[in-house]
Every structure is written in C-alpha cells, then in structure tokens.
Write a structure and sequence with these properties.
Blueprint: H1 2-42, E1 68-70, E2 93-95
Antiparallel strand pairs: 1-2
Length: about 120
C-alpha cells in the first residue's frame, strides 16, 4: 500500500516538474521575443525611396555599348612549341569591326531550334 502511495506521489511530482519546466521554457520564449522587438525598435528603419542614388540628368556615366567577337587562341608555330602567358591575349573578346546589333531572322523562333516549319 505504501509503495503505491509513494509511486503516485512520484508521478505527481513528475507532472508538477514537467509543468514548471514548460512554464520556464514558455517564459524564456516570451522574454526572447520581447527582447527581439526591443532591439528591432532601436535599429534604423529601411531606406526611403529618396535615400537611394539616382541617375544624373545626362544619363548613365561611363557606359558604352559595343559589339564584341571572340578572340581566337593563337597557335604555336610548331607542335613541340608551347605558348607562354604573355603570348596569349588578356581578354577573351575584342571589339568587332561590324558594330550592327545582330537581329533574329524573321520566321526564326530563336532558342531551342524553333524555325520555319516547326510547331
């Protein structure tokens, strides 16, 4: 009889400990949220539209548009000869002689091989 009372009292103490532990965890979470709100209020707000930089009235500065073409890799004179880094061009492309922008052919679908006759 005493062992059942003792087991029941241990179960009751276990339930009370679990309940108090849950209250402590819930209290810690509420404290963390309130601390986060307080820290957030001290931070500056997001920038307004007027705070962002704007283009000058003359338009973009230092912008240039040009058509470029690939720079071919120079070939060595002999098969046994190697090219050194100073013999290779620094850039992978160069200014094209033809500065007309390439346009799609009418009737051509563009990517994925779509052209005349394809549906």
């Amino acid at each position: 009889m005493i062992s059942m009372e003792w087991a029941a009292s241990n179960a009751a103490w276990g339930m009370i400990a679990a309940f108090v532990g849950g209250l402590v965890i819930a209290g810690a979470l509420v404290w963390a949220v309130r601390l986060g709100i307080k820290v957030r209020r001290r931070e500056p707000g997001p920038p307004r539209r007027s705070d962002h930089p704007t283009l000058p009235p003359t338009g973009p500065v230092m912008e240039s548009r040009e058509v470029r073409e690939p720079n071919e890799m120079p070939l060595a004179r002999d098969e046994s000869e190697r090219l050194t880094p100073h013999e290779i061009h620094a850039s992978g492309s160069r200014r094209s002689a033809d500065q007309q922008r390439p346009r799609w052919n009418s009737g051509s679908g563009g990517s994925f091989g779509g052209g005349p006759g394809t549906t």
